[in-house]
Queue: 4 jobs
Job 1
Amino acid sequence: MIGPDNTPLRFLSCGRIILEGDEKASARSEGREVALICIKGAGEVRVDSSAYAMTLYDALYIPPGKQYDVAAKGRVDLVECSAPSEKAVETQFVPFEKARHDPALHLTVGDKSSTREVYKLIDDNVEAARLVCGLTFGKPGHWTSWSPHEHGTTREEVYLYIDMPKPNFGLQMIYSDLQNVDFVAPVFEDDAVVITEGYHPNVGIPGCGINFVWMMAGLRPDVDREWADMHFQPEFVGKG
């Protein structure tokens, strides 16, 4: 589990629920809102009297104060992220197939060397308090999170890299000053990087795009959830 207890994160926590065969797991969202995103396999999540069939890239938003029970259908791998919330709203299922065909949630962005597909799974379509979550799939050899941007005054974030089977990898950077880079390292499938401040561009190797789940928590509930609220590195705007 990644969260405030072991990282600089203040609000966001994230982990994985991986089940096989007839395995089951249960948890309760006491004082927190939860988002589940299926990154492999298929399973079922029960909340109250409703059952949600989770398949690849589907998302489920669970408000605080709910028990949720997860069962595998063969094997399931769910990303689980959460943040403090007192907001009384409904559970909401976000099928990937529906998001894929919604121009407000599926964006093709970037230029000749930074093209990627972005899917906003938990965004304005969900009445969350802090969480904003989605997927990015970069083109082989292309940069993403480009032009370099930062949002450290409004949102903290975790990237979890997916669909990059070894030996494929990407390169992740985090910095406020390019002359004194805070973090630069190869990242592989299942790695996660915490971003609390600084620009954070990344790039995939030739033959493999860099792909990741991005999970953000607004520092102020109901205020800092605007996905496009970011500051771009001025010298690289329009270059990519």
Job 2
Amino acid sequence: MQTETNVCAGRRLAIIPARGGSKRIPRKNIRDFRGKPIIAWSLDAALTSELFDEVLVSTDSPQIASVAREFGAAVPFLRSAESSDDYATTADVILEVLRCYEQEGQCFDEVCCLYPTAPFVTAASLQKGLSLLRKSKFDAVFPVVRYDYPIWRSLKVTENGKVALNFPENLNVRSQDLPPAYHDAGQWYWLKTASFLRDGIVFGDNTGSIQLPASQVQDIDTEEDWATAEMKHAMLDLR
């Protein structure tokens, strides 16, 4: 008789969370980005990597589901209302998907949450992330990018327009003497399923990272962001 551990062994799931309620950029997840729906770039990276037993799109939108299936994703169910509102977290979505698969008798050793508006994701970065997750003792791994200006010299502007340092103790410290700082690249998270189910979070104290160059990272929250992303993407000649 197979144990649950044996059934799950070596199985990997990609989850692309793509709800239909984008407000700042309407229809953001399926809007054309350099010739195809932006979600298709994430799907292509996941499928090309050949890492996954299943590449799933979690959505509450039949239209997004149709586009996702067209580009090779599985959409076995639509996301619940509870995990589709403005307050639902990425962890909520992952947990719902894992529970749905569990009801069908399926489980996975590792899960990768891959964002739908991340056209700079490559199969190589997904492979590198999984390799680090497996070789290390980390519970999770995700890509980071270095801030191009020291955050320790960042400023705040008060209501009356006055400028002040967020960290005044660094006023006379040379920028080259300040430690580097990084932020989430906003592309994917590799997770050990057992650790995620235990802690219920995607980014805890035992999380590792790979570093990406700024040229391969772009938040897309505004029309200006979108235009910038398309320019950078074209310069890199990503296909």
Job 3
Amino acid sequence: MSEKKLVQVFNPSLAALLFAAEKDKGSALTEDEVIAIRNSSTMMLVSEEAAAEMDKKRGYKDIDPDNCWQQWRELRKRF
């Protein structure tokens, strides 16, 4: 019997949480703020398959919590 790998999934998505926090702040988030938001947000562990299904339903792949600062900087450049 093989074990399924579990991955972190944020609900709401980490990207949505960061966009909302930045809008509320009225300026760019700092790295410390991004990390604090990640650390205080609701997260669950699900199988990779379930995470992929959630991304599909959302219409986008969420930010990787382990690389959230780098991915957040890249994501916000597009908006």
Job 4
Amino acid sequence: MLIVIGSVLHKCFHEAGHIEAAYIFGATVIHASIDSGGVARTSVQHKTDLSTKSPVACGGFAVEQLLFDRARLVDQEGNPLSVAAFRKQAMENARMDKFPFYIKQPIDAAGIYPGSPYQPASDLTWPIESDAPFMAYGFQHIVPKLDSRMPIVEKLACELYARRSLTQIEIEAIRGMSVC
């Protein structure tokens, strides 16, 4: 099955990556949803040491990378994506994911996130230099772990697409099902 970038199904795969990465690294997924406007969210309870924040943040990107590697992502006209086009859209999709990846402390009085090597702009975009470390972490730590789990990621994505909302109990049931 080919997946058009920016489609609701594409966003569901991205969220399914966050879900499965959470389970792999020991976080708890509370809820996942995609609203009628196409805004997708996954709520996660992280470990108290926050060690799950970066892996979960990169889960969506990692799934997109695996779909790209398998030639399953296409543009609106059905054409395969170039590496540059893939990376551009993947980093646009990861804009909000970079917050838990880079930000570990609350904003200070000067409007700076302490300890973060990069700071988001007022429009919530990130400097281009923030892309390479995010992607490198995803390539090295998350893509290899999600690769063999793509059948369950696909099942989660398809269920999220069909239902538009999944509770923790529903997610755990889907993860326990045999994949069709």
